[in-house]
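Issue: copy button drops trailing tokens. Both records pasted manually instead:
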Amino acid sequence: MVNDVEKRWNDPSMLRHATRYVLAVLGLATVGAVITIVWASARPRCLDAGSMLCDGTSRGVVGLVPGVILLAGGIGALVLAFRAWRAERAWPIWQGVGWFLFTLMVIYLSIVGTQGA
């Protein structure tokens, strides 16, 4: 078993893999946000109102789709951290990725949630 107190975790290939994972999750969240914004702005109700986020449905979908993608990415990163820990590899990289994605999710949801107020 690995000694968790010892801080010599250096695994460049794991870091590259984690970086690609973060970029993929952020890319998916961005694509999800763009698709939902285009959908929300093309709704007949919103065309008449002249606002992209004209009702609760639009605000909810634009907020939740990228938020759920970031949440799933964070949970996936923590699952990968657990698997790396079980394989006695550098797991703190994945734990950091998970918490980074959770933080981005909370920031995104707080920004989108205040738009309707």
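Record 2 (pasted manually too):
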Amino acid sequence: MQPSRVLIINGPNLNLLGIREKDIYGNLTLDDINNIIKENTKENNIYLDFFQSNYEGEIVTVIGESINKYSGIIINPGAYSHYSIAILDAIRGVNIPVIEVHLSNIYGREEYRRKSITAEGCIGVISGFGYYGYIMAIHALINNINKVIKP
């Protein structure tokens, strides 16, 4: 089986993990999480690329540039989840399976965080499992790519 390439996108303020709101997001930094993801998925015959930006346009651009480059995308759009039609349109435009991940359970938080606009373009959402949500998303993408399960 040919290796798949997966892009993991993290949105605004996720570069502050380990510093901001530790009671919600924990003590791990984004680099810690990326290293845990790599370690937990190294036997899955996939290549991982990581991208983080605090800028909506950069996220839209990297999604658009993923055509013919990635088999799947995992995205944590952060606060952009709740209002970015631009990111939603980019997700819909690339015809690549995308899974949205949130470290915290957005459905158990403030009312304005409970609606994800960007999730409408994704094949699924994983919310509330901390860093392990990314690992879950990778396994779900592998299943989707290999057509083991269908959404």
